[in-house]
Specification:
Elements lengths: L7 E11 L2 E7 L11 E4 L2 E9 L2 E6 L1 H6 L10 E6 L18 E10 L4 E7 L12 E4 L2 E9 L2 E6 L1 H6 L10 E6 L1 H11 L2
Antiparallel strand pairs: 1-2, 1-6, 2-5, 3-4, 3-6, 4-5, 7-8, 7-12, 8-11, 9-10, 9-12, 10-11
Length: 195
């Protein structure tokens, strides 16, 4: 379980194919605090640390994860948003984030609002996922509030701190991002569809 409050950014050091999986090695300032078997959110994707070596650690993304996320799009040197799992007793500054990406969305527009930014994303309606105005959404692991909710499209407003400290500053139209819809909304939608 995560909160969507990004702790750090890592840099992709190596990408190795391993049958139908890929092993990602990430350089991070969090390495000294990590241990093997720990869960970390990478652009919103919960992955398990499988090895640690000096200033880097390695995680494995399996076929199921690769099919639903943008991890196969990563290149050497790319930045990834990182968050360690929630500790019981900590403040929950974002919202409940599972690290289970629902689907990929495409950035369609970036507007500089002279002190903040508005990013618009479109996603496939085939999975029946929805957003609601002022509801929660996770984009590349960042907990955000939905504005301008439309069918298969939504926007988020980004403050300067988030822009500077996440990989949002690399997004442009055409950028693929990982989306996790609000878990409570998913349960309500599922229950409502059974009526």
């Amino acid at each position: 379980m995560f909160t969507g409050i990004i702790e750090s950014r890592g840099v992709v050091k190596s990408i190795n194919s391993n049958k139908s999986n890929i092993d990602l090695t990430i350089v991070s300032d969090l390495v000294d605090e990590l241990k093997v078997d720990q869960s970390i959110s990478h652009n919103g994707v919960c992955l398990t640390v499988v090895s640690i070596d000096k200033d880097a650690y390695t995680v494995t993304a399996i076929k199921e994860t690769l099919e639903k996320t943008n991890l196969e799009e990563l290149k050497l040197g790319d930045q990834v948003n990182l968050e360690r799992c929630l500790k019981v007793g900590d403040r929950l500054d974002g919202h409940f984030v599972q690290g289970h990406v629902d689907q990929i969305a495409t950035c369609t527009n970036v507007v500089n609002e002279n002190g903040s930014w508005v990013f618009t994303f479109e996603y496939s309606p085939l999975n029946n996922n929805i957003t609601i105005e002022k509801g929660s959404i996770t984009v590349n692991g960042v907990s955000l509030t939905v504005i301008n909710s439309k069918e298969s499209k939504f926007s988020v407003a980004i403050i300067p701190y988030t822009f500077a400290n996440t990989n949002f500053n690399t997004f442009k139209p055409g950028t693929l991002v990982n989306i996790e819809f609000d878990v409570f909304g998913k349960y309500i939608t599922k229950l409502h569809s059974k009526k």
